[in-house]
Amino acid sequence: MAAPEQVQCFFAITLAPDNAGLSGIQKAAYVDAERQVALDTIILASRRNQGVWTKDEVLFLRDKTEERYAARMKALERGERMWDISVSMLMIAAGKKPRNNSP
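^ thats the sequence. predicted structure below, dont judge the formating
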């Protein structure tokens, strides 16, 4: 089997809600997206590793996550800069299968 002729791209996406080049709506959207990722991670981890955390521990983690991001959103509204930066790695793999000219 021949290797593909063309392959992948890697991107590092850096998000900093306190970037002066962003509008207030964009900043809030970044913080909310980070909040949702954190909540989704808790849910996925608890489902994948059932029995590791009790239901009360999962609820505690979710509540603390909500508190953290509510405080972050209020700081953002006050214009307080925290410079919390998140980096996401994104890999896009695409290939083109070479033609097989043999019969």
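The mean pLDDT is 83.
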